TrEMBL record:
It comes from Aquincola agrisoli. Pfam families: B_lactamase-like_C, Lactamase_B. Residues 43-264 form the Metallo-beta-lactamase domain. SMART domains: Lactamase_B. This is MBL fold metallo-hydrolase. SUPFAM superfamilies: Metallo-hydrolase/oxidoreductase.
Amino acid sequence: MANHLEQQLVYPLGDTLPEPGETLEVAPGVRWLRMPLPFALDHINLWLLRDRLDGREGWAIVDCGVDNADIRGLWEQVFATQLQGRPVLRVIVTHMHPDHIGLAHWLTARWQCRLWISATDYGVARLARDTRGQGGDESAEFFAAHGLRDAETLDILARRGNHFAQLVPALPDSYRRLLDGQLLAIGDARWRCIAGYGHAPEHISLHDAAAGVLVAGDMVLPRISTNVGVSSSEPEGDPLPLYLDSIARVAAELPAGTLVLPSHGRPFRGLHTRVAQLRQHHDERLADVLAALQAAPATAAEMLPVLFRRPLDAHQTTFAMAEALAHLHMLWHGGRLERGRGADGVYRFARRMPA
């Protein structure tokens, strides 16, 4: 069911969705497909772009889905029925999160083609596969140090080990680097790379100015707010200002009528409206945090009912803790909060008193 914010946006395709293993054309040379995800967020949008590379006609894939047998089977159905007999020439990944890069190794091997991705996200994906920063005891200890006391959630987090490596069993051994401002000739179109920060290390969106189309990845989503969080791999990180600056730049540079192709939800128009909604959302959450800290210092865990007014399962709690820390850290790094660590080893945040 649409919420009042969604009703301020325009959905050119209405409620129409591509069937599993099939595609819909959303712009000339741009086809939309959806793959299921094994999470509460149950789908990801992927894109096929008509391409020409090294004298060959074919397709570019943008984002991959997670690696499991069902998704591979759906991809094989796409290959058999949707490519008009042409090959895949390259695999473009907007960023390193598992639902975007998970099958990159299989797709590039399947078609003997190259992965295209920012250098930062390729490197961080490799780091995430080789460390325990994406789960396990390190993450459980990190959230416990920020006040999370739910034994079941901490046990689930500790036992699942390196969750990233479970969802991304391998990565291509090589890649081609995408850079902010780079122009990609994909078929007859020219797509400009737009780097965004805060959600991922160096997220790359693609903008075709002539067609008025933005492949937004996760930077601008129509129904939900993009996850922006602090993790144990960068425990003092300050990602929220980076994210807000990134989407403000997109709104400043791109026309209001741009067709936005998000990674989750439906294609929409209303980019400037949506960016303003997201800015207001985070401004309200920051104000909520400051109001909650008026009486006494608090932990990130104690901010969860302030920021999330719905029940959270263990998986959602980890994302919620990361987001709560992003809001606290923006205020802390911005000089509006102080952080201290008690004798119990737990970090608490307090409002900074005027000098």
